[in-house]
Amino acid sequence: MRIAICYFSGTGNTRRVTGEFAKALEALGHTVSELSLDGVGDDLPDGIGKEVKSCDLLGVAYPIHAFNAPANILRFARCLPAGEGRPAFILKTSGEPLRLNDASSLKLIKLLRRRGYEVRSEYRYCMPYNILFRHSDGMTWRMLKTAESLIPLDAAELSQGVPRLPRPVPFGSLAAFLLRCEHWGGRLNGRLYSVTGECVHCGKCVRECPTGNIRMEKDGKIKFGGKCLVCMRCAQSCPKDAVKIGLFVNWKVNGAYSFQRLPSKEPEQRYNKLLTQAYERYFREAERRIDQTKESIT
Ligand SMILES: Cc1cc2nc3c(=O)[nH]c(=O)nc-3n(C[C@H](O)[C@H](O)[C@H](O)COP(=O)(O)O)c2cc1C
Question: What is the pLDDT of residues 8-24, one digit of tens each?
Answer without folding.
Answer: 999 999 999 999 999 99
